[in-house]
Specification:
The N and C termini lie far apart (about 50 Å). The strands form two sheets. The chain has a seven-stranded mixed β-sheet. It is globular and about 55 Å long. The chain is an alpha/beta fold and about 280 residues long. The protein folds into two domains: about 60 residues, no CATH class; about 190 residues, Rossmann fold (3-Layer(aba) Sandwich), CATH 3.40.50. The chain binds S-adenosylmethionine.
Length: about 280
């Protein structure tokens, strides 16, 4: 579809109506990316008039829930940006390896490749058995795929190069059971993972984590929401905790106020100690 079928104003008012109807807040999502998502949704369901979309979204709960994936892109990869994972091993795990229990949160984990990448690295560092991993996403569909741990062989072929870059001496069969069409992550890499639907915008989390991954999720949010989420993520970290953002995220100013840059090329930030924040 060449031009947008819906204007920014129409998208904004649809998001306000959705917030009222379902209490799911997309109002601070970046408008141009939402417009593209809504256009994808309309094209998929052959809806040409914004009013028809409006009535379908607000009257059909299942349609709305299934639409979330069209509003966003769940793009992810195994060992996405492999050099960033080298940074995670060197700049984070080397420092946290003394911990008896390591708590890791993948916020916006999509279909799970990021979670299993980290589980493989934790295992390689001898830390997997001491780790509790929380994998959350807004999309139930993406989360179900994450939980299944099943990926097509075509996808695995696509991931092989990045995998080899990180683990030149290992083979995918060390981590996945390979079938003709499907690769399934071995149970060892799933057993410490809890999967949970969670909306970051709700800023609701009682646990504290040593490492939070929030890679390529902030890209959807406008400046105000980005700041709010950064404050929230900082509050969910232990005192010596780390935040890992994505290669495609622009780094909000707030990150530099509450975090020390640990490894900029890997987008790794360390929570500032309280005394330093007070002194500023
Ligand atoms: C581009 S994917 C990134 C996946 C993975 N972190 C990575 O970098 O490979 C972004 C994910 O963020 C999720 N997402 C978007 N808004 C969210 C929100 N408010 N709360 C939780 N997850 C959200 C989407 O469903 C999608 O799966």
């Amino acid at each position: 579809m060449g031009s947008l079928a819906i204007s920014e104003e129409e998208v904004k008012s649809l998001m306000t109506a959705m917030k009222k109807r379902y209490d799911l807040d997309f109002t601070n999502y970046e408008t141009s990316s939402l417009c593209r998502g809504v256009t994808r949704l309309m094209a998929k369901h052959k809806i040409s008039a914004p009013l028809d979309l409006w009535s379908r979204v607000l009257n059909d709960d299942d349609f709305f829930l299934n639409s979330i994936d069209d509003l966003m892109i769940n793009l992810t990869e195994l060992f996405r940006n492999p050099e960033a994972w080298v940074g995670v091993r060197k700049s984070i795990l080397e420092n946290l390896k003394y911990k008896q229990n390591l708590k890791v949160w993948h916020a916006g984990c999509s279909t799970g490749e990021e979670v299993y990448t980290m589980a493989m690295i934790l295992d390689d560092c001898g830390l997997l058995d001491r780790s509790d991993i929380l994998a959350t996403d807004l999309s139930k569909k993406a989360l179900a795929q994450a939980q299944s741990g099943e990926y097509s062989i075509q996808l695995m072929n696509k991931y092989a190069k990045s995998f080899k870059k990180f683990f030149p001496k290992r083979i995918l069969e060390d981590f996945f059971d390979l079938d003709t069409d499907i690769a399934t992550i071995k149970p060892r890499y799933k057993r410490n993972v809890t999967y949970q639907q969670h909306n970051l915008v709700s800023c609701d989390m009682t646990d504290k984590f040593d490492i939070i991954f929030c890679r390529n999720v902030l890209i959807y949010f406008d400046g105000v929401l980005k700041q709010r989420i950064i404050n929230f993520l900082e509050s969910c970290l232990t005192e010596d905790g780390y935040l890992v953002l994505g290669f495609y995220d622009t780094i909000p100013q707030r990150v530099l106020e509450v975090f020390d840059v640990k490894d900029q090329s890997s987008r790794i930030y360390k929570k500032k100690v309280k005394e330093i924040i007070k002194a500023i």
